[in-house]
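Good morning C.,

I know you're traveling, so I'll keep this short. The sequence:
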Amino acid sequence: MIRYFARLNAARADRTLLNRPEVQKLSDFGAQFGFGLSVLEQRHFFEAPTSDPAAAAEPLLTWPFLDFVCHLELRSERLLELGAGRSTLWFAERFASVRSFETNADWQRALAPKLGANVELTLVDVTALENASVEYRGETWLLVDFAGKRSAFLDRFLTRVPRALGPSAIVLDNADWYRRGAAILHAQGYLEIPFYGFKSGQSSLSCTSLFIDPARFAPPQRSPFFSPPFSREFDNEWDAT
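The tokens, ready to paste straight into the viewer:
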């Protein structure tokens, strides 16, 4: 349920409205607290951990990054994903195709029946990912989010696939933990855009970084401009030429 909290002007509000028991009398702090709680609930911040990879409402990637992806038109793009889960379903709704590799057999079995025709899910050993022993088919986006040595994968993958022939966008989740991996991407000429923020169900801030090839990254923006729930709608008279 989405709930909006705002302070009423008691001098101008209808008295019958003010006397209704469900109308809460809030201070400015109360209105801010209620607003924050509503946003957290809407984004499933308080959801409990689950063994079902498809049960989580949002991928375990930071909210600012997810909102940025929603702003892009990616239905002609292809994604190579290392580490499957709710993100696989979420990206399948936004990309033309998703090719995902997972190292946990139970996770793979639980997720496989829920996937659509545009998703290819493969079970692999973690060493295969760490050694970059997976076929690259020219996908434009790469998500590195598997439970293993992600920096080792990036080192081997970028040795085999130079930037000009590789993805124009590489997503490294928990990039604050993998600064050696980030340095490898920087050395290859990728530009890092860090998205720090909340993740659903977690109790600390995280960083999902997008590394782009500036010469080739040019996905179109969706129209109208994407606004997540609880965004303020404002008729700005100053926005004039």
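Safe travels,
E.
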